[in-house]
Structures are given as structure tokens and as C-alpha cells.
UniProtKB/TrEMBL annotation, chain A:
Domain ArsA/GET3 Anion-transporting ATPase-like: 11-282
Lineage: Bacteria, Pseudomonadati, Myxococcota, Myxococcia, Myxococcales
EC category name: translocase
Catalytic activity annotation: arsenite(in) + ATP + H2O = arsenite(out) + ADP + phosphate + H(+)
EC number of the protein: 7.3.2.7
Annotated source species: Corallococcus interemptor
Pfam families: ArsA_ATPase
Membrane spanning stretches: none
GO molecular function: ATP binding; ATP hydrolysis activity; ATPase-coupled arsenite transmembrane transporter activity
PANTHER family tied to this protein: ANION TRANSPORTER ATPASE-RELATED, ARSENICAL PUMP-DRIVING ATPASE ARSENITE-TRANSLOCATING ATPASE
SUPFAM superfamilies registered for this protein in UniProt: P-loop containing nucleoside triphosphate hydrolases (SSF52540)
Name of the protein described by the UniProt record: arsenite-transporting ATPase
Length: 369, 306
């Protein structure tokens, strides 16, 4: 299967990768390509660069996805059936919605949302962005308005943090921990009560009595949501493990790329998630078909011209060495691929990527590869 | 000295090179890795030849030590220092539920990392001299680093008193003191990374972290004089693009990126050349290049003595 096929068949495309590799741009370009191919597409993105956001007409802190106007999507020709929506993940909004949906009553939801610690939780827990991404993906899948959702995962050191972070958060919300803090654990037994008393002492000692009490009321209120949260996590897991999903690693053409790629493929395999391949971003692996720099020599009329041509020849050598390195990296990425997975080079679009036209071009370049 | 930047810009390599350069210049330096995930192999340890990467400080050569900060170690130190009785701290650390809570609870992990860093910085020799007069911290990629930077304030607004509040206030005092702390932001000479760096610089200012230098990593070599550059423009205009075009465009982007960075930050900015080296060899070469500018940089980097 090529990337074009994936964009037509899949329901979920997850783009993973370290920060700074151009994941968001790639996600946007793939979303554009799929929408232009006729699908209803949502690109879920996190913290896009300002100009990229502007190119897509993305509103900051929007409560709902923004539609890219058809005249922009189809600027160069006939309008099709496809649609492109983009949403910038706002953890605060995702969380608030989740709390409201999962709370039994409006007043139960308010108890959580108005709690002083709520702000703390939604802003500062490591993994909140990742958790919000997972939660948003789950709820858009459940609504079923889109043919394809392209998820741009939060930047991280390791490509798969996105998958682990929700686990970290749900471990915090683990029933056992909650009942340890909660005022009414429902569990008896001397050992358990002993543990509860110990935790109480420790927390009072560390945080001071007032804060520990606050923490208890909050954890108790949040604890009610636990079953729902776990349900969502399980449901999403099922979606992500199915053949409707595809995980792509976006990587930049550097020495570390191979190591990262191996790690990514193995980690996905271990988690039973569908590995779809690599996008080698900003690479010079493709030929540009230009005349050699030396062809300018006969046109050099003076010393400055001669200097200019030899400087360009030098640059062309540098470029060539770089292109060869990228090509060999691409070849090595392609070596260990399972059937159906792909390794493609995305062109180095440089500064051109800051308007919508640039995204269309990049999307086209990726899908014909 | 806190080294910050997005993933993939060479931040870890730069941290290692800064530490190696300082050590060679005769300054005892502690290189600290602050990574949100503490498991897995440590690239930084490998770059400076540290034999192990853990919460224990190990020697990585003359004047150079290495540590990988650990939240768990921080929690242990904190509990031991805070809790009135020893058995309570021990029991607390043995409690599985509490350990899991400390691992996963809001901001507790970051607090643990910060507390270990603080306690390392506080260490003194018997004669009163600080053990680690200069500490280079390799911060996690930008997003996490900002969370770490905004964390102390949020915690203080939640619990101004109590032992946690006190520790956090101490940490904040250290981090915000330009006499003791300096942030080095690292980026690449391309439009997007520079835009992002300029917004990072604005955010650092907002949270009161003192910026001390901006580093543009992997600056491409410029083979032109102003005259030959102008001559090439004329030639290409007449005869169309030739090979070397991509490198030429990249060079132009780098030039503009450097100008934008210089206009956008008030601190010195330093360009490091793109080198055809990787790993330890790259660290060594960058350290040599840094050594020549180190006197200034070290003075700006300040001593991290609390």
C-alpha cells in the first residue's frame, strides 16, 4: 500500500515523532491530500506554528474544529466532495467536556471543575496534552462525523510518549490510589486502614494539613469518573489496534533517525499497534534534475563571476553529499520494513510551507511517492 | 546553566560540549540530565563517557561529573528531610500506593526532579566550598521545559506554606536569580525553529527565568563574499537554477534566521558551524570551538551556587 491508499482506506492516522521534525506540517499536508481526494477529514493538532495555523485558517482556543473553506481547499480547480476540518487541541476544553460528560449530575461536574486543584491537574500533570489528545480522538471517533482523523501527537523526546502518558494519568486515578485518599474507601481491614493512616500522615507532613484535605476532596470527586475514563481508554485502544488505524513515524534525516525508527517499530509491535512506516522529512533524497553548477562556468565574465561559480560548485558538492546521505538513510529505513509498510521521503520545502498552497504541494509530493 | 530548546536541535550535544569545554578550562562542572522519562539509555551519558546514568553522581573525567536526575531520588531526599520521624519516611517510601502516587500525581514528578537538583546544588565540602560550582542542566524538549518553568509559581499559588512551599520557593529563588542561573536557548537556523525560539524567549521572560545566550546550531558554511554572491544572483537570473540551489536557499534561510534571532534577543547569540561529525567526536570539536568563547560564556552562565 502506498500513502495515497492509506489516506483513502484508513480511519485513523497517527503521526508520531520527536519534537521539531515537522510532524504538524506533515499531518496538515496529509489531511489536505486526503480531503482533496474526497474524504471528510479532521486534523487534530497540537500547538502548530503560527503561520501554519494561519495557512489553515485555524482559530486559537476554538471550542470546535474549524473548516478550511472549500475555495481554499480547491483553489486550483474543480471542487470535490471532500472536507477538511482542523482543530487545535486545547487540553482545558477537552478535559472540561470529559468531566461534564462523565459526571452523573451537573453539580458533580461543578464540584470538580470549580475545585481549586482542577486547574492544577489540567495544566500541570505531565501527560495532560497526551491524555487530551487520546480523549479527543476517542470522542471524535465515537461521534463518527469524519472518514479520517489525522492525529498530530504532542512533541516528545520519544515518539511513543503519546501512548504511555494516558496510562500514567490513569494510574494516578487508579481506584486503589483514590480509595487510599478518599474519605470513604469502602474497604476495610486493618492493613488497609493502616495504609490510609500512613498516607494521611505523610501528606499532612509534606503538604500541610489544609492542602492534604483539599487533595482528598478532589481525588474523591474525581474518583467517580474513573470507570468512565477507563472505558474510554479501552475503547480507544481497540480502535488504535484495529486495521482502521495506521501509525507513521515522522523523522528528520539525522544519524539518530535509524535508532529511533527501530525503537518505534519494536515498541508498536510490542503494544500490538499497526505500524505503517516512516516519513523521512525535510530530506534532500529526491533528485532535483538541475544542471550541474559547473555548467555556469562558460558564462563567467569576470573574477567575481568565477568566484561565484566556484562557490556554487562547492555548495553543490555539500548538497550532493547531503543528498547521498539522505538517500542511504532512506534505503536503510526501507530495509527492515514489514509488508505493506512504507518509507518515503518528504521534500525539504523550506520556507514555502507557510501558506496553504505549500501544504497542497507537500501533500501531492507525499502521495505520489 | 540551563540548556533549553526543541527536540532535534542538538541541545543534548550542546549541553555535553558546554560541560566538556568548562571542564577543560579547569572548572569543576556537573552535567545533569533532566529527562521526563528516566528509563532507557542515556544519550548524554554516552556523549561524555559516563559509565552509568543514574541518580548517583559519577565522574566522567577530570573536572567533569555526570548525574541523571531522578524524581524518586528527589522524593526520597525530600521525605527524609521533611518528615519528623525517620520511620515514617521509610514506611512512606515502602508504601507501593504512595510511590505510585508520587510517580503519577500532578506535578509531583517534576517536583522530585527539582528537589534532587536543589539538594545537589546545596552540597558543600567540609571547608564550606560548594561541591558543584557550575552545573549544566540538559532540559527536556521545550514543552516539558516550560511546564517545569511555570510549575514553581503554580505550586506556590496553591500552597504557599508548608515544606513543599518552602522547597519550591528556594528553587524559584535560585532559578530566577540572574547572578546564579542562566538559560541558554538552542535552535536551528531555519524560519520555524527561530520563530519558536523567539516565543520561548518571551515565555522565559514571563516566568522570570534569566536568559543568558542564544545558540544557533548547525550554521551552514557560507562560501561567498558579498561580490561573488551578487555575481551569482546575476548569473542565476540569466541562466536559471543550477545544482546547489537547495544549499543556496538553505544558506539564505540561515542568514535570515540569524538576523531575526539577533534582532529578537537582547543577549549574545552564538553560531556553531555544521560539522560532518556525530557523537563524541562532535562533542569534542564543539567543545574546542566553545572553549575559545568560554570565558565570556562562563561569566554569563554564572555559578549555580544557592
Amino acid at each position: 500500500m502506498n500513502l495515497d491508499g492509506m489516506l483513502r482506506d484508513k480511519r485513523i492516522l497517527v503521526l508520531c515523532g520527536a519534537g521539531g521534525v515537522g510532524k504538524t506540517t506533515t499531518a496538515a499536508a496529509l489531511g489536505v491530500a486526503a480531503a482533496r481526494a474526497g474524504r471528510k477529514v479532521l486534523v487534530l493538532t497540537i500547538d502548530p506554528a503560527r503561520r501554519l495555523a494561519e495557512a489553515m485558517g485555524l482559530k486559537e482556543n476554538g471550542a470546535e474544529p474549524t473548516s478550511v473553506p472549500p475555495e481554499r481547499l480547491y483553489a486550483d480547480g474543480k471542487r470535490g466532495e471532500g472536507r477538511l476540518d482542523v482543530w487545535m487541541l486545547e487540553p482545558r476544553i477537552v478535559f472540561e467536556r470529559m468531566v461534564r460528560r462523565m459526571s452523573a449530575t451537573e453539580s458533580a461536574a461543578r464540584t470538580i471543575l470549580e475545585h481549586r486543584l482542577y486547574r492544577f491537574l489540567s495544566e500541570l500533570v505531565a501527560g495532560v496534552q497526551e491524555y487530551a489528545a487520546a480523549e479527543a480522538l476517542d470522542s471524535f471517533l465515537a461521534e463518527g462525523h469524519y472518514d479520517l482523523i489525522v492525529l498530530d501527537t504532542p512533541p516528545s523526546r520519544h515518539a511513543l510518549d503519546f501512548l504511555d502518558a494516558p496510562g500514567r494519568l490513569s494510574r494516578f486515578l487508579d481506584e486503589r490510589i483514590i480509595s487510599l485518599f478518599g474519605p470513604d474507601s469502602g474497604r476495610t481491614g486493618r492493613l488497609w486502614q493502616g495504609a490510609q493512616a500512613l498516607v494521611g500522615k505523610v501528606l499532612d507532613g509534606i503538604f500541610g494539613g489544609g492542602f492534604a484535605q483539599e487533595m482528598r476532596t478532589f481525588v474523591a470527586a474525581f474518583g467517580g469518573l474513573f470507570a468512565g475514563i477507563r472505558l474510554h481508554a479501552d475503547r480507544l485502544r481497540e480502535h488504535l489496534s484495529s486495521k482502521d488505524a495506521a501509525f507513521l513515524l515522522v523523522t528528520s534525516p539525522e544519524a539518530a533517525a535509524l535508532r529511533e525508527a527501530t525503537f518505534f517499530q519494536e515498541a508498536l509491535q510490542a503494544k500490538g499497534l499497526p505500524f505503517a512506516g516512516y516519513v523521512l522529512n525535510r530530506s534532500w533524497a529526491r533528485e532535483d534534475g538541475l544542471a550541474p553548477a559547473a555548467a555556469l562556468k562558460p558564462h563567467a565574465n569576470n573574477a567575481a563571476d568565477t568566484d561565484a561559480v566556484s562557490a556554487l560548485e562547492h555548495l553543490a558538492d555539500v548538497e550532493d553529499a547531503r543528498a547521498k546521505a539522505h538517500q542511504s538513510l532512506l534505503a536503510r529505513l526501507a530495509e527492515g520494513l514489514p509488508r505493506g509498510a512504507l518509507a518515503i521521503a518528504a521534500p525539504d520545502a523550506g520556507a514555502d510551507l507557510e501558506d496553504f498552497r505549500g501544504l497542497v504541494n507537500l501533500g501531492d509530493a507525499l502521495t505520489v511517492a | 546553566m540551563l540548556v533549553s530548546g526543541k527536540g532535534g536541535v542538538g541541545k543534548t550535544t550542546l549541553s555535553a560540549a558546554l560541560a566538556v569545554a568548562a571542564a577543560r578550562a579547569g572548572r569543576p562542572v556537573l552535567l545533569a540530565e533532566l529527562s521526563p522519562d528516566e528509563g532507557g539509555p542515556s544519550m548524554l551519558a554516552g556523549l561524555v563517557g559516563a559509565r552509568e546514568a543514574g541518580p548517583k553522581v559519577v565522574s566522567a573525567g577530570p573536572n567533569l561529573s555526570f548525574v541523571r536526575l531522578s524524581a524518586q531520588e528527589g522524593h526520597r531526599l525530600f521525605l527524609e528531610e521533611t518528615l519528623p520521624v525517620k520511620w515514617l519516611a521509610e514506611a512512606a517510601l515502602r508504601s507501593k500506593a504512595l510511590r505510585r502516587f508520587l510517580e503519577a500525581g500532578p506535578a509531583l514528578k517534576e517536583m522530585g526532579l527539582m528537589f534532587q537538583l536543589l539538594s545537589l546544588l546545596r552540597r558543600t565540602h567540609p571547608d564550606g566550598r560548594t561541591v558543584h560550582p557550575l552545573t549544566v542542566v540538559d532540559l527536556p524538549a521545550t514543552g516539558h521545559a516550560m511546564a517545569l518553568a511555570t510549575l514553581p509559581r503554580s505550586i506556590l499559588s496553591l500552597m504557599p506554606g508548608g515544606p513543599v512551599g518552602r522547597a519550591v520557593r528556594e528553587g524559584l529563588d535560585l532559578l530566577q536569580d540572574p547572578a546564579r542561573t542562566g538559560v541558554v536557548v538552542t535552535t536551528l537556523p531555519e524560519p520555524l525553529p527561530v520563530s519558536e525560539t523567539l516565543s520561548l524567549v518571551a515565555e522565559l521572560k514571563k516566568v522570570g527565568l534569566p536568559l543568558s545566550a542564544a545558540v544557533l546550531n548547525r550554521m551552514p558554511e557560507d562560501p561567498f563574499t558579498p561580490e561573488s554572491r551578487a555575481a551569482l544572483e546575476r548569473l542565476l537570473e540569466t541562466h536559471g537554477p543550477h545544482q546547489g540551489q537547495r544549499a543556496l536557499e538553505r544558506l539564505e534561510r540561515a542568514r535570515q534566521a540569524r538576523a531575526r534571532l539577533a534582532a529578537g534577543v537582547a543577549v549574545p547569540h552564538l553560531g556553531l558551524p555544521e560539522l560532518a561529525l556525530t557523537g563524541v567526536a562532535l562533542v569534542e570539536r564543539l567543545a574546542e570551538l566553545l572553549e575559545s568563547t568560554l570565558e565570556g560564556a562562563a561569566a554569563r552562565g554564572r555559578e549555580a551556587t544557592p
